[in-house]
Amino acid sequence: MRGAVMHAPGYVEVVDRPDPKLLAPTDAIVRLSATCICGSDLWPWRGADQVRDPTPMGHEYVGTIEQVGDEVTTIKVGDFVVGSFFTSDNTCEICRAGYQSRCTNAYPMGNEGTQAEYARVPMADGTLVATPGQPDADLVPSLLAASDVLGTGWFGAVAAEAGPGKTVAVVGDGAVGLLAVLAARQLGAERVIAMSRHEPRQKLALEFGATDIVAERGDEGAARIKDLTGGYGAHSVIEAVGTQESMMQAVRSTRPGGHVGYVGVSHGVELPGKELFFSGVHLHGGPAPVRRFLPELIQQICEHKIYPGKVFDLELPLERAAEGYRAMDERRAIKVLLRT
Ligand SMILES: [Zn+2]
């Protein structure tokens, strides 16, 4: 099969990779309908994460089941499925508490490299969720978004306790931040402030339900959030970047007693203890347990209630994956869908 590999920072190539095979009786093989490039794939592209040579890339996926192992019971050949970027048994205590991304048996799908035509999914029963029937082609981008960016934005909003009567601020205008806006609104937040300086992203944030836009960032951004909330700060702030600046912007935009949901993959973030102590904010986050939300998100997508697939503003054939990385790196594209 064809699949994207990264040789070094800034160097992605689509090559022949071995077809995945069932390795355990709980595995499934999925023929991918579409895959995509994640903001987190830009960390190694930019040299912020180490690259083993050559590394298969990608951890987001939707598609049709080709093959299942003997012990797979809930997923069958022909099902159209969505899965998370971490596999989960969905039976251990951590999973049952809703933290499937930290399952005691979690395995990162990034190791399989889903920017490819096929992927092996371990623990298929606990990881994959089938859609009700075959989805229309126009739903595929939204279902693909559910695999990571929507699920992650949703978790950010839940971790920040977005809900009725709340003012929610979102730090970060990548796909996750934009979908956190959508999630906060769907969860009933009264006011959703998107923090973005980029006009096309501001527009999409408004489409997803943002009520206000703040273009300032860092401490200036936090000061603007305080101005907009009677000096208090937001009840809920979603951090969707993962840098020191964005994390402090999130903490400083939150009122005492409020909640920060942090879902940007942390890179070099160090929290000052004394400031944290006196901030009085709740911090919760981490790799999103997307599996927890998938049944509900799939249902909302299939009923045409939400259109998270709008974050894909560039579509390329898989063979041109490198172009997609460049477009996202240069912020010419919010998120790139790769047709397999
Ligand atoms: Zn588990």
Descriptive report:
- This protein is α/β, with parallel strands linked by helices and 340 residues long.
- The protein contains 12 helices and 18 strands.
- It folds into 2 domains: 2-148 and 289-339, Medium-chain alcohol dehydrogenases, catalytic domain (Quinone Oxidoreductase, Chain A, domain 1, Alpha-Beta Complex), CATH 3.90.180.10; 153-285, 3-Layer(aba) Sandwich (Rossmann fold).
- Zinc ion (ZN) binds next to helix 2.
Layout of secondary structure:
Layout: E1 2-8, E2 11-16, E3 28-36, H1 42-45, E4 55-56, E5 62-68, E6 80-83, E7 86-87, H2 93-96, E8 107-108, E9 118-121, H3 124-127, E10 128-130, H4 140-146, H5 149-159, E11 167-171, H6 175-186, E12 191-195, H7 199-207, E13 212-214, H8 218-228, E14 234-239, H9 244-253, E15 254-262, H10 273-279, E16 282-285, H11 290-302, E17 312-317, H12 321-329, E18 335-339
Parallel strand pairs: 11-12, 11-14, 12-13, 14-15, 15-16, 17-18
Antiparallel strand pairs: 1-2, 1-4, 3-5, 3-9, 3-18, 5-6, 6-10, 7-8
Helix pairs in contact: 5-6, 5-11, 8-9
Residues 88-89, 91-92, 94-95, 103-105 line the site of zinc ion.
Note the overall shape. Answer: globular
Query: What is the fold-level CATH name, i.e. the topology of the largest domain?
Result: Quinone Oxidoreductase, Chain A, domain 1
User: How large is the share of residues in beta strands?
Assistant: 25-35%
What's the rounded overall pLDDT mean?
97
Q: How would you classify the helix and strand content by structural class? A: alpha/beta
The H-level CATH homologous superfamily of the largest domain, spelled out, is Medium-chain alcohol dehydrogenases, catalytic domain
Q: In angstroms, what separates the terminal alpha carbons?
A: 10 Å
- Report the CATH C-level class of the largest domain: Alpha Beta
Annotation, overall tally of beta strands: 18
Could you spell the SSE succession in H and E letters? EEEHEEEEHEEHEHHEHEHEHEHEHEHEHE
- Overall radius of gyration: 19 Å
Largest sheet: 7 strands, mixed
- Structural domain tally: 2
Report the total helices. 12
Small-molecule binders = zinc ion
